[in-house]
Amino acid sequence: MFQGSVTAMTVFFPLDTARLRLQVDEKRKSKTTHMVLLEIIKEEGLLAPYRGWFPVISSLCCSNFVYFYTFNSLKTVWVKGQHSTTGKDLVVGFVAGVVNVLLTTPLWVVNTRLKLQGAKFRNEDIVPTNYKGIIDAFQQIIRDEGILSLWNGTFPSLLLVFNPAIQFMFYEGLKRQLLKKRMKLSSLDVFIIGAVAKAIATTVTYPMQTVQSILRVNRNLVNPRNRKEATVENLLFYFSNFFSFRRFGIIGLYKGLEAKLLQTVLTAALMFLVYEKLVAATFTVMGLKSVYKH
Asked: What is residue 225's predicted lDDT score, i.e. its pLDDT?
């Protein structure tokens, strides 16, 4: 699972860089993924789209381990040989997501800052940073902003646990439907249902991802004169009134969705493919019934 996630994230990492720039830098004229990437390369260098790769990969590995370990452990305890249902998958996915958020949010706050370090922003409200690495970023954030700043964006992140929960709900549901019609799922089947499940989850929850990115980067972006008012409610009001309706319409809450869909859908599809292959191989080695079969 980790190998699949790392490979997919590395291949599609520039798409995530473009998504983050579109979310936090509203004054950027380029609004499409390829134009933003070309702009970044021209202004910041060929490797700029991969800035912050190591912190993101580290966070991804930790996050995936926490989520899948919790998800499978809870599912094993709850189901206990019974048939799994869509409702159970959703509940287990939600609980696993909450545990994941509470444990790994500091990592994501740090890697978001590192990804944007050295970027050429159009928005003057973004405060430049000068971190030497992951450890130094942790130290500076705690020293200058307080330890609780490492959990900036936790509330929207908790709401976003519905993303993997919805993803797994649709993934498991689609898989069960296909297994009613055939004895074994092909690699293409797993790839497609993984992509469909992630696309649905990403589209439904994307507005909160935009809010989450803003909070992680700099709370001052909402109201530079009053940090205490940088709440999720104010952020949503700010986006819906300023970005969405006054500038871009409802699309304002979905800035960067194109890049996010390309990156996460392809990543999730590849990740699920590797995941199912590893699980099937493990069951084969143990002499047990494969999850691919009835």
From this structure: 44
